[in-house]
């Protein structure tokens, strides 16, 4: 059965690219979309930043037609400001607005935004209602199991947020105090799926990093789809690999070195196109080691890649990488 968020049809068991600050920008989203991500989100955007018209927040509103369906994710601690930010974000016409109630990092959660709303569900509900009322678009939420081990309140959160009109909920199977440590536990996510009162799609998130795990957890937890974050960094093929495994029960061949080089180059091109030559080259540096993870003696090439300063230089090095490794990877 096809999963639906408002009027957005996502097909059966969609795979979503997780919003990731400093990662899921348009260049990265481009390569994830090419490789099968069914829905994507922007990096989180500060409601305060949007209202102040801060350049960084504004830039994150850039979305492209080929990315659809795409959601803009916002966060904040002030209900009125979240309402205003929703209006601003809606003007660029994304497919949906997503609210971040999951971010655990101090300068977000300790300023009353992100996961900290898990400590004040009444406020979270009021904020969500304000966002839903401020836009004609579907509103979704991304959150965690709860603040800490003693307050895993996401079951109640799911019911109450559905009541005020959210159209889908993504749950990262960790608490705020876990940050990114330990393992994601999806048990409570299954409980929510079993709640007969819950009608909206529930997406599981946390630690999906292989087709086998995706297939096993799909069966075990009964979610409507999955959101994938870290496993897609430097490996956007994860989406198509999981889909292929679902459809055939067989593993897709891993990308060849030539494919890795191609996708890495596309990522760089898009990065330059969107950010300009200087920032585009600079911000791409964090990605090279991810694209070529597991390749013997890559260190030397990595050094070259992160010190080169123009597309032409980097492209030369990428050709060398392809030449050098293709024989041994074949
Ligand atoms: C570098 C990084 C940045 C992130 N930024 C965001 C963000 O902007 N908004 C958000 O909701 N979650 C953010 N997250 C959390 C991810 O969306 C996701 O919930 C988490 O990584 C668990 O999924 P995974 O195990 O598939 O990575 C971020 C995670 C990472 C690693």
Automatic annotation (TrEMBL):
Active site per UniProt: 103
Residue sites binding FMN per the record: 73, 142, 172, 229-230
GO MF annotation list: flavin adenine dinucleotide binding; tRNA binding; tRNA dihydrouridine synthase activity
Alphabetic keyword roster: Flavoprotein, FMN, NADP, Nucleotide-binding, Oxidoreductase, RNA-binding, tRNA processing, tRNA-binding
Gene3D superfamilies: Aldolase class I, Putative flavin oxidoreducatase, domain 2
EC number(s) on file: 1.3.1.-
Keyword Flavoprotein: yes
Domain of life per record: Bacteria
Domain DUS-like FMN-binding, residue spans: 16-313
Catalytic activity: a 5,6-dihydrouridine in tRNA + NADP(+) = a uridine in tRNA + NADPH + H(+); a 5,6-dihydrouridine in tRNA + NAD(+) = a uridine in tRNA + NADH + H(+)
SUPFAM superfamilies assigned: FMN-linked oxidoreductases
Function: Catalyzes the synthesis of 5,6-dihydrouridine (D), a modified base found in the D-loop of most tRNAs, via the reduction of the C5-C6 double bond in target uridines.
Family named by the database record: Belongs to the dus family.
Protein's recorded name: tRNA-dihydrouridine synthase
Record organism: Mucilaginibacter ginsenosidivorans
Lineage of origin: Bacteria, Pseudomonadati, Bacteroidota, Sphingobacteriia, Sphingobacteriales
Encoding gene (name): dusB
């Amino acid at each position: 059965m096809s999963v639906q968020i408002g009027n957005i049809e996502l097909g059966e068991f969609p795979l979503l690219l997780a919003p990731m600050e400093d990662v899921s920008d348009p260049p990265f989203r481009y390569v994830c979309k090419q490789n099968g991500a069914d829905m994507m989100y922007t990096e989180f955007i500060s409601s305060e930043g949007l209202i102040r018209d801060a350049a960084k927040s504004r830039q994150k509103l850039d979305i492209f037609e080929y990315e659809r369906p795409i959601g803009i994710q916002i966060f904040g601690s002030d209900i009125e400001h979240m309402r205003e930010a929703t209006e601003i974000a809606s003007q660029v016409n994304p497919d949906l607005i997503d609210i971040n109630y999951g971010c655990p990092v101090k300068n977000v959660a300790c300023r009353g935004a992100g996961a900290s709303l898990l400590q004040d569900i009444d406020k979270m509900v009021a904020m969500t209602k304000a966002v839903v009322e401020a836009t004609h678009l579907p509103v979704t939420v991304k959150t965690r199991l709860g603040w800490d081990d003693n307050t895993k309140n996401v079951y109640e959160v799911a019911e109450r947020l559905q009541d005020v009109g959210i159209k889908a909920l993504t749950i990262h199977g960790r608490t705020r105090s876990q940050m990114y440590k330990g393992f994601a536990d999806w048990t409570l996510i299954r409980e929510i799926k079993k709640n007969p009162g819950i009608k909206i799609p529930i997406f599981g998130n946390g630690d999906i990093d292989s087709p086998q795990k995706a297939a096993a957890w799909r069966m075990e937890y009964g979610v409507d789809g999955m959101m994938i974050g870290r496993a897609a960094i430097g490996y956007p093929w994860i989406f198509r690999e999981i889909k292929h495994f679902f459809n055939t029960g067989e593993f897709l061949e891993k990308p060849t070195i030539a494919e890795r080089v191609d996708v890495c180059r596309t990522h760089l091109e898009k990065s330059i196109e969107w950010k300009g030559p200087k920032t585009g080259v600079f911000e791409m540096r964090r990605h090279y080691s991810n694209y070529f993870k597991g390749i013997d003696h890559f260190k030397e090439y990595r050094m070259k890649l992160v010190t080169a300063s123009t597309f032409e230089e980097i492209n030369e090095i990428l050709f060398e990488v392809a030449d050098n490794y293709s024989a041994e990877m074949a």
